[in-house]
C-alpha cells in the first residue's frame, strides 16, 4: 500500500492513520481521524503500519480530542471496575507510572474492606508495565538501602498490608520530601564499636491500602487519600458490547501497556504554573508546597501521556535487538543510516490546557484544604451528630453566631449525641445500612481527628459526642480549564472527550 504523506507544522512528514475507528459508549459507529498536527510517525524510513502497534491520542471526526486514557477506561470497565471507581482507577494507573517518568505521586487507597481494595488494585495493575511496580508484603529498611536504593529507583512501591510501611515510614517520608534518606547503624567489631552510614537516593511513588482507621498506613502531606466504593460493577467482565463500544479489539491490553511503557521521563514546562500556584495559595490550604507539587506532577504526567514522541529508528532497533536505545542510536549514526540531528528529539514538553483538564479530572475532590481525609461514611456520621446537636439546641440561641452555638453545645450535655442515637437516625434515612460497631468506629475516628469531641454526662457511663466546628475541610477549587492561560491554544475553545464518562466537553 502506498503511504500518504504531507508536511506538518513541525516541517516533518505526517502520515495518515489507516483503519482506526473508535466509538463512544453511546454511539458505536463514530469514525475517528488522525490529528494531522500531532500524527505519530517513524523518523527515518518508517511507514504508517508501524504506528498501528501503539496507541495514540487522536482528533475524532467530530473535532474532539480523544486522549489515550479513553481506551484505558474501556479495559478497566471490561475487567469489572465499578464506574464509580473509574476516576480512582485512572489515577492509580497514572501513579504506577509516575516515578519512572520523574514526576512521582503517592496515594493510599481507602476502603472499609481492604480485600476489595486489593482486588481493585489488581485490576488497575493490568494496564501497568510489569517493570513499573514492585510489591512487598512488609517493606523493610534493607529494601530501601540496598546498593544505595538502586532496587527501587524509578519504581512504584506497592504494599497491600495496612501496616506494611510501618518499619520504613520515617525513611520514606524523607525520600518523598527530598529524594534521599540517610541511616546510621552501630556495628560491633572485634576491637570496638563503629558507626556506619547508609544512604539511599531514589525517585519512587508509593501505593498502599488504608483501612480507614487512624494510625494505620503511611501519613505524609504529599500522599493522596483515594476512597473507593465497595459496590460491584453492573457490567460483566468481557462484555462484547463494551469491547465494541471502546474499540478494544483494535486496542488489546498488551498494546495499551506497551504504549505506556515506551514513554520516558521528560522535562515538562507548564506555562500556566503561576496561575495554578495562585489558586492553591488563595485557597488558604495547609502544606502549599506539597499540594502544588502533586498538581504539577499530575499535569506533567498527563502531558507525557498525551504528547507521545514519534517512533524512531533507534527505538525500533532496541526492541528488535533487545539492547539499549542509545547503543542503537550510535550505531545508526556510525553506519550512516541516520544523521545526528535526526536522533535528537528529546527536548522538553510544553503542557497545554488539555493536559491540565485531564489532571484536574483525576485530582477532582482529592486536594484538600486540610490534612485530613474524611470518608463518605464519616461525613454522614458527622452530619448526623451536627443535626442532633443543633436540633436539641432549638431556639436557645437566636443569634446566628457559630462560635456561640459551638460553645453552648460544648458546655451543655443535653445537646450531645450518643452512639445509639446516631446509629438510629443515620439508618432511618435509608440507603446503606450502618452497623452499630461501624458507627462507633467512625465516631472514634472523628474524635481522634479533632473533628468531634466527647465526654460523659453526669451520672452516665456512655460518651456523648458534639461537633468542634460547623463544617468539614473541603476540597481546593482549581481553575476551570477554560480559565487557563494557554499559549498553545490561547482563547480557542477546544472539545475534549472525557475519558471517564465518554462525553465531549468544551474547554
What topology emerges from the helices and strands here?
Elements: E1 5-7, E2 13-15, E3 32-33, H1 48-51, E4 58-60, E5 65-66, H2 69-78, H3 86-98, E6 106-110, H4 114-125, E7 133-136, H5 141-145, E8 156-159, H6 169-178, E9 180-189, E10 192-201, E11 205-210, E12 223-227, H7 240-245, H8 253-261, E13 268-269, H9 273-282, H10 288-306, H11 313-321, H12 325-334, E14 349-350, H13 353-363, H14 376-393, H15 402-411, E15 417-418, H16 419-428, H17 436-448, E16 452-455, E17 464-467, E18 495-497, E19 504-506
Parallel strand pairs: 6-11, 6-12, 7-8, 8-11, 13-14
Antiparallel strand pairs: 1-2, 3-4, 4-5, 9-10, 15-17, 16-17, 18-19
Helix pairs in contact: 3-4, 9-10, 10-13, 11-12, 14-17, 16-17
3D structure, described in words:
The chain is an alpha/beta fold and 507 residues long. The protein has 2 domains: 60-229 and 239-307 and 351-374 and 474-506, 3-Layer(aba) Sandwich (Rossmann fold); 376-467, Arc Repressor Mutant, subunit A. Helix content is 35%, strand content 15%. The protein contains 17 helices and 19 strands. The protein has helices at residues 48-51, 69-78, 86-98, 114-125, 141-145, 169-178, 240-245, 253-261, 273-282, 288-306, 313-321, 325-334, 353-363, 376-393, 402-411, 419-428, 436-448, and strands at residues 5-7, 13-15, 32-33, 58-60, 65-66, 106-110, 133-136, 156-159, 180-189, 192-201, 205-210, 223-227, 268-269, 349-350, 417-418, 452-455, 464-467, 495-497, 504-506. A 5-stranded parallel sheet has the order 7-8-11-6-12, with helices on one face. Strands 3-4-5 form a 3-stranded antiparallel sheet, with no helix packed on it. Strands 15-17-16 form a 3-stranded antiparallel sheet. The protein is globular and about 90 Å long.
Amino acid at each position: 500500500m502506498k503511504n500518504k504523506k504531507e508536511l506538518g507544522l513541525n516541517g516533518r512528514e505526517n502520515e495518515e492513520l489507516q483503519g482506526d475507528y473508535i466509538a463512544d459508549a453511546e454511539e458505536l459507529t463514530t469514525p475517528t481521524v488522525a490529528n494531522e498536527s500531532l500524527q505519530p510517525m517513524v523518523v527515518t524510513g518508517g511507514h504508517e503500519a508501524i504506528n498501528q502497534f501503539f496507541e495514540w491520542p487522536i482528533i475524532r471526526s467530530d473535532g474532539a480530542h480523544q486522549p489515550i486514557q479513553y481506551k484505558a477506561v474501556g479495559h478497566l470497565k471490561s475487567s469489572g471496575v465499578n464506574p464509580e471507581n473509574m476516576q480512582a482507577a485512572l489515577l492509580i494507573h497514572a501513579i504506577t507510572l509516575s516515578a519512572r517518568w520523574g514526576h512521582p505521586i503517592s496515594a493510599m487507597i481507602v476502603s472499609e474492606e481492604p480485600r476489595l481494595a486489593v482486588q481493585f488494585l489488581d485490576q488497575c495493575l493490568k494496564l501497568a508495565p510489569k517493570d513499573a511496580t514492585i510489591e512487598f508484603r512488609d517493606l523493610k529498611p534493607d529494601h530501601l538501602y540496598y546498593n544505595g536504593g538502586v532496587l527501587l529507583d524509578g519504581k512504584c512501591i506497592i504494599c497491600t498490608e495496612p501496616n506494611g510501611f510501618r518499619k520504613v515510614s520515617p525513611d520514606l517520608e524523607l525520600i518523598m520530601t527530598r529524594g534521599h534518606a540517610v541511616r546510621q547503624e552501630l556495628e560491633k567489631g572485634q576491637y570496638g564499636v563503629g558507626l556506619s552510614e547508609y544512604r539511599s537516593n531514589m525517585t519512587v511513588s508509593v501505593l498502599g491500602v488504608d483501612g480507614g482507621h487512624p494510625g494505620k498506613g503511611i501519613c505524609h502531606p504529599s500522599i493522596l487519600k483515594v476512597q473507593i466504593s465497595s459496590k460491584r460493577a453492573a457490567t460483566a467482565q468481557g462484555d462484547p458490547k463494551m469491547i465494541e463500544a471502546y474499540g478494544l479489539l483494535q486496542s488489546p491490553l498488551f498494546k495499551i501497556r506497551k504504549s505506556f511503557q515506551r514513554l520516558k521521563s521528560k522535562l515538562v514546562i507548564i506555562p500556566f504554573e503561576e496561575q495554578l500556584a495562585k489558586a492553591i495559595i488563595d485557597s488558604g490550604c495547609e502544606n502549599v508546597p506539597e499540594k502544588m507539587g502533586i498538581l504539577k506532577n499530575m499535569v506533567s504526567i498527563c502531558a507525557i501521556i498525551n504528547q507521545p514522541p514519534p517512533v524512531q529508528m533507534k527505538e525500533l532497533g532496541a526492541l528488535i535487538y533487545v539492547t539499549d536505545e542509545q547503543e542503537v542510536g550510535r550505531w545508526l549514526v556510525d553506519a550512516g543510516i541516520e544523521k545526528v540531528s535526526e536522533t535528537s528529539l528529546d527536548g522538553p514538553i510544553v503542557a497545554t490546557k488539555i493536559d491540565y483538564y485531564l489532571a484536574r479530572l483525576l485530582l477532582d475532590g482529592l486536594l484538600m484544604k486540610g490534612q485530613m481525609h474524611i470518608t463518605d461514611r464519616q461525613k454522614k456520621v458527622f452530619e448526623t451528630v451536627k443535626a442532633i446537636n443543633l436540633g436539641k439546641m432549638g431556639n436557645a440561641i437566636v443569634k446566628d453566631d457559630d462560635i456561640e452555638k459551638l460553645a453552648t453545645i460544648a458546655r451543655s450535655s443535653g445537646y450531645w449525641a450518643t452512639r445509639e442515637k446516631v446509629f438510629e437516625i443515620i439508618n432511618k434515612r435509608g440507603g446503606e445500612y450502618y452497623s452499630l460497631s461501624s458507627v462507633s468506629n467512625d465516631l472514634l475516628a472523628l474524635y481522634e481527628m479533632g473533628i468531634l469531641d466527647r465526654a460523659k454526662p453526669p451520672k452516665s457511663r456512655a460518651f456523648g459526642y458534639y461537633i468542634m466546628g460547623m463544617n468539614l475541610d473541603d476540597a481546593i477549587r482549581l481553575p476551570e480549564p477554560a480559565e487557563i492561560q494557554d499559549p498553545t491554544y490561547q482563547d480557542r475553545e477546544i472539545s475534549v472527550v472525557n475519558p471517564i464518562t465518554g462525553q465531549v466537553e468544551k474547554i
